[in-house]
Each structure stands twice: as structure tokens, then as C-alpha cells.
């Protein structure tokens, strides 16, 4: 008898009816914030839940949400000098993530890159689709250490 907790990931098979979404993430992406003469570097983490494609057997690029689109967008928004606050930047990035109708929810966290072993503050925003028609927003600020 095989113990359930000893099964490897490749051995786990779920019925298709139990699968409804997958997750995509970008962690610790460094963004130079503030235009061409950026004076601050931010760390971005983004987590998205995405609806499964219509055909899991088809290996097609058009069926997936591309993480490079998120990275490229975030870098572009970080260079936009009109986004003067971390909150505005995070809101613009999460809005960009939710622009793809396959994305169920998105969480974006931004924090300054500071010296090693130093605490820092940051900003996190979470947005999810309500009934897959409209997006709602839940804001959450967090601070760690000093």
C-alpha cells in the first residue's frame, strides 16, 4: 500500500473536473523606479490565478497567459514618471494583469530593495473577478521591521 503523503507530484492524477485554474507567478523582479534617473529599486512579486485552457492536450501559446507580458509591462510602468507613488504603480501593474480575461485574481506586492538583513515596508494589492464579469479590489498595506 502506498502512503498518500509519499506520492511524488508526477504520480498524482486529479480528475479533470477538479481542475479549474493554474497559477503563474513572478518573484523578486527588480524594478528601477522613477524614470531614466531612477533613484530607487523596488522588488516586485506578482501571483495570478488563471482559468485552464479549453484543451489541455493542445500545447498552444495562445492558450497561456505570458509572464513576459507582465514583466515587460511592470518595467514600463516603473519608468512612467507620472506614477508618483508605490500605490499607484502597484495599482497599474495589477490592472495590467487583470486586463486578460482569463485571469481570475492577481496579487501584486512592491517593496524597496534595502541592505541585507534590514527590515522594510511595502505595499500589496489584491484584485479578483466577481462572477468573472467585474473586478473588485481589496487593498492591503504591510510593513516589516524598521
Concise structural overview:
It is built from two helices and five strands; from the N terminus they run ββααβββ.
How would you describe the overall organization of this protein?
This protein has 146 residues and is of the alpha+beta class. It has one domain: GTP Cyclohydrolase I, domain 2, CATH 3.30.1130.10. The chain is 17% helix and 39% strand. The protein contains two helices and five strands; from the N terminus they run ββααβββ. A five-stranded antiparallel β-sheet has the order 1-2-3-4-5, covered by helices on one side. A hairpin with a 3-residue loop joins strand 4 and strand 5.
Backbone shape:
elongated
Number of strands: 5
Can you name the CATH architecture? 2-Layer Sandwich
Strand order of the largest sheet: 1-2-3-4-5
What is the assembly state of the chains in this entry? single chain
Helical proportion? 10-25%
CA gyration radius, whole angstroms: 18 Å
Q: Give the class-level CATH name.
A: Alpha Beta
Overall mean pLDDT stands at 77
Q: Topology, please?
A:
Elements: E1 21-33, E2 40-51, H1 67-78, H2 86-98, E3 103-112, E4 120-130, E5 134-144
Antiparallel strand pairs: 1-2, 2-3, 3-4, 4-5
List keywords for this structure.
146 residues; alpha+beta; GTP Cyclohydrolase I, domain 2; 5-stranded antiparallel beta sheet; 17% helix; elongated; disordered C terminus
Amino acid at each position: 500500500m502506498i502512503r498518500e503523503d509519499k506520492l511524488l507530484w508526477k504520480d498524482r492524477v486529479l480528475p479533470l473536473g477538479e481542475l479549474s485554474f493554474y497559477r503563474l507567478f513572478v518573484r523578486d523582479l527588480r524594478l528601477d523606479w522613477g524614470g531614466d534617473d531612477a533613484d530607487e529599486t523596488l522588488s516586485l512579486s506578482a501571483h495570478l490565478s488563471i482559468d485552464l485552457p479549453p484543451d489541455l492536450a493542445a500545447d498552444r501559446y495562445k492558450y497561456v497567459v505570458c509572464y513576459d507580458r507582465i514583466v515587460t509591462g511592470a518595467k514600463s510602468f516603473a519608468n512612467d514618471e507620472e506614477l508618483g507613488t508605490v500605490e499607484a504603480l502597484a495599482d497599474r501593474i495589477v490592472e495590467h494583469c487583470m486586463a486578460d480575461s482569463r485571469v481570475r485574481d492577481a496579487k501584486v506586492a512592491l517593496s524597496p530593495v534595502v541592505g541585507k538583513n534590514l527590515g522594510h515596508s511595502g505595499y500589496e494589492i489584491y484584485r479578483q473577478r466577481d462572477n468573472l464579469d467585474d473586478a473588485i479590489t481589496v487593498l492591503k498595506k504591510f510593513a516589516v521591521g524598521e
